[in-house]
Amino acid sequence: YLNLYMKITKIKEDISKEIAESFKNSVAIDTEATGLQIPERDKLSLIQICDENQNVFIIQPNKKNFKAPNLISVLENNQLMKIFHYARMDVHFLEFYLKTNVKNYWCTKLMSRLARTFSPNHGLKDLCESLCKVKLDKKVGSSTDWNKDLTEISDKEATYAANDVKYLKTIKDKLQTMLEREKRFDLFLSTM
């Protein structure tokens, strides 16, 4: 079941302690950066978090010092599952800029590669269409300057960023079912 309602909250620098403590079992996380190469060149621009009630928080870190203790407490919480798509990139940027060690995370791209061996398409857009019956418009994000001030990010851009996390829990659940059915779930867990 997909909740079509989504609340988006824009936050500068860090989430509050109350928001951090409101996350119970899992959160979906994505990042936006000035590029996808290396953190030394490309800057971490935004961090999106979606809770299990479709509340999305778009956080613009302080680019002078990247201090975000409440966000770091979420990333380092071993009891809270973090769901990423292409975790390798997101986790690398988060760990580099926030000086943290992300714990207990799963990657839906890796899950898809192990579960959906019948398909060469494992991108988020493909998984949303195949597993959630939702077509994402990825044009907005590929031409957006995510480093501009948070107040300048349009509603359309915020919705694009929020959609990158909105469907991850559903995708994770469906891929986990497939992995278990195909007896590949232990293989996936061993890679995480």
Quick tags:
alpha/beta, 192 residues, 6-stranded mixed β-sheet
Rounded mean pLDDT score? 91
Unreliable parts? none
* Strand arrangement, major sheet: 1-4-3-2-5-6
What's the SSE pattern? EHEEEHEHEHHHHHH
Roughly what fraction of the amino acids lie in strands? 15-25%
Radius of gyration: 16 Å
Proportion in helices:
40-55%
Number of helices: 9
Structural class: alpha/beta
Number of strands: 6
Distance between the termini: 26 Å
Largest sheet: 6 strands, mixed
Instruction: Sum up the overall morphology in one term.
Output: globular
Task: Report what the structure shows.
The chain is of the alpha/beta class. It is built from 9 helices and 6 strands, in the order βαβββαβαβαααααα. The protein has a 6-stranded mixed β-sheet, with helices on both faces. The mean pLDDT is 91.
